[in-house]
Design brief:
mainly alpha; disordered N terminus; about 270 residues
Length: about 270
């Protein structure tokens, strides 16, 4: 059961900070399958805990990376039906897997928005490397869903708007924030509904990348109205987590290929 072609062998850096995220080898398959079943249960019956929801959304993409056949969706459905929910609940609620948010709510929100910016760069790389619509759709549909569910961009903008300085810039700041969220949603909707199969048609890739870029750039505009010290601290957390993940992946023959993007604020 080889997962070397998952994400072209890359571990998306904006997800590796989440619990249990990494490219998996065979021995990890049972854990992933159980957690994926729990995610389906949580979606149908409501969240178990916030930490579990974050974990279980992440493991959707991991489960898919374990099956490389053309009928991956059918294979995963069989996995879901064969996995007891009780077992999944036991594994998913282990304290060691819990996500620990920043105790400062604003820093946590800024951290999540920074992760969205990072994710847009990674997604653009997927688009630029893709040659077939269906291949890109299968990859991006899940990863964009994880970005949407885990980081809740519109919620972060709504919350952080209370901290806009100066207050006279509230309209400009929130406009930028909402346009950022809209651009991300445009990309999500297009990948979900408009990508079909076969080679790309004219302007398809450009439409996706332009919305990802718009999301990232308008977020920069919004974040420029945030307290600089808290924004810097949030970005530092992203950087430190990425370094820790890089060190974990280095020298691990089971880890797959860790190929991080350049964090977007490093180029400004």
């Amino acid at each position: 059961m080889d997962c070397s072609d998952a994400y072209d062998g890359e571990a998306p850096t904006y997800l590796t900070h989440l619990p249990k995220y990494r490219l998996l080898n065979k021995k990890d398959a049972f854990n992933v399958n159980s957690q994926h079943a729990t995610m389906q249960h949580a979606e149908e019956h409501g969240p178990i805990t916030s930490a579990c929801v974050s974990l279980l959304l992440t493991t959707t993409v991991l489960a898919l990376s374990l099956t490389n056949s053309p009928n991956r969706r059918d294979a995963i459905q069989r996995i879901i039906l064969a996995t007891p929910i009780a077992t999944a609940l036991t594994q998913a609620t282990q304290p060691a897997l819990a996500y620990t948010p920043d105790p400062d709510p604003l820093r946590e929100s800024l951290y999540l928005m920074s992760r969205v910016q990072e994710a847009t760069v990674q997604q653009e790389r997927f688009v630029n490397k893709a040659t077939e619509q269906d291949v890109l759709k299968s990859k991006m549909k899940l990863t964009l869903r994880l970005v949407e569910k885990n980081y809740r961009l519109l919620d972060q903008i709504t919350f952080a708007a209370e901290y806009v300085t100066p207050t006279s810039a509230l309209v400009d700041a929130t406009t930028a924030g909402f346009e950022s969220a809209e651009a991300l949603q445009n990309a999500i909707d297009y990948v979900k509904s408009d990508l079909k199969s076969g080679p790309f048609e004219k302007d398809q890739k450009e439409y996706i990348t332009s919305n990802l870029t718009e999301c990232r750039e308008r977020l920069f505009d919004f974040l420029s109205y945030m307290p600089p010290d808290k924004l810097q601290a949030a970005r530092k957390r992203v950087e430190e987590e990425n370094v820790a993940n890089r060190d974990e992946f280095d020298g691990d023959s089971d880890a797959g290929v860790y190929n991080p993007v350049v964090l977007p604020w490093k180029n400004r």
